[in-house]
Amino acid sequence: MKPYTYARARSIREALTAAGADTAFLAGGTTLVDLMKLEVMAPEQVVDINRLPLRGIRYGIGGLHIGALERMSDVAAHESVRRHYPMIAEALELGASAQLRNMASIGGNLLQRTRCGYFRDVATACNKREPGSGCAALTGINRAHAILGTSDACAATHPSDLAVPLVALGAEVQLTGTRGRRTVPLDAFYTLPGSTPHIENVLRPGELITGVSVPRSAWAAHSTYVKVRDRQSYEFALTSAAVALELRGDTIKEARIAAGGVGTKPWRLTAVERALKGRPATADTFEAAVAGAADGARTLAHNAFKPALLRRTLVRALTDLRERR
Ligand SMILES: Cc1cc2nc3c(=O)[nH]c(=O)nc-3n(C[C@H](O)[C@H](O)[C@H](O)COP(=O)(O)OP(=O)(O)OC[C@H]3O[C@@H](n4cnc5c(N)ncnc54)[C@H](O)[C@@H]3O)c2cc1C
Ligand code: SF4
Question: Which strands make up the sheet holding 239-248, listed edge to edge?
Fold first, then answer.
């Protein structure tokens, strides 16, 4: 690990003032410390934010608000989250391990870096880690890589399970920096790799995520998260689907859908949502609606199975949800 200075902030103002151009904020440390040990990340300064007042889970007329320092396990266990946003609780519980979820924060989860093996191996070429060095994954082992939103510079998937239901439900992130506060839809927070895969989001240097808000809706309470992976626990998604449906009788009134494991960012599937709306909730409708889910996909040597797996994951989530009524 490269040497760095450590500071513990007692207030948001102190954290923002302490943060320089090459600062990393430390929350649970479950990703940051790993990457510092591997020298994939080598900030000059680490500012510990664990004492900041960024806790709290509130549900009310405006929807759900989660403080950035809330731990994954506490959010997953929260009664309002389980009752009104089951897909969020399910996505959290299907991620990492119980020990990690007890440490890992919501802000850190949304900012975790990709699990592409080449990104984490400093001996290999990786445009995300070292801009302009090339991409070893495009000609290397790319079974887990993305098929949507990729570029000639990078095809790494976004790893967060939590971000998938949040994007489906139109969540927003609250940000605070020396230039003030702002709120950004999570979908717009993440950027596509293009020719600059080292830029993953619109967070400015030294800016903090303070919280996440999820709107109240008629469909969030009837929702699920399905995750398909090589082993049943402690593994990232090959494909995943966050699906929320508002049903009137057997008719789909509204649908909100996003996919994980397939995109360079969490992937909202608005065309699938439109194809479901107003249709009967039947197997035929589901199959027809997901037919174009992977349109525009660019597969690599080892991940050509992903378009079909994505369609099957979506159908399974839709079917599970219909039967859960
Ligand atoms: C073995 C293993 C398996 C895992 N499996 C899964 C999985 O299946 N699904 C899944 O979704 N995740 C998985 N994870 C990732 C895990 O969820 C993240 O490591 C965790 O959520 C990160 O949170 P943290 O608080 O520890 O972040 P940290 O490691 O403290 O920080 C992560 C990054 O976010 C920045 N940061 C943190 N908080 C803020 C903030 N409030 N404002 C601005 N910047 C901030 C840090 O500077 C750093 O760059 C796994 C991790 C491990 C180690
Ligand atoms: S896919 Fe992206 S993260 Fe992986 S090696 Fe290529 S540039 Fe790096």
Answer: 223-228, 239-248, 251-260, 267-268
70 lines ligand 1 (CB under 6 A): no
Testing ligand 1's pocket by substitution, the residue of 6, 11, 16, 32 carrying the most ligand atoms inside 8 A of its CB is 32
**Rg for the chain, CA atoms, rounded:** 19
pTM above 0.85, yes or no: yes
50-88 per-position pLDDT tens digit: 999 999 999 999 999 999 999 999 999 999 999 999 999
Q: Which ligand is nearest to the CA of 126?
A: 2
Could you read off the pLDDT of 79-95 as tens digits, one per residue?
999 999 999 999 999 99
Other Cβ atoms less than 10 A from the Cβ of 60: the count is 9
Q: Which residues contact 220 (CB under 8 A, 6 or more apart)?
A: 84, 85, 87, 169, 214, 244, 256
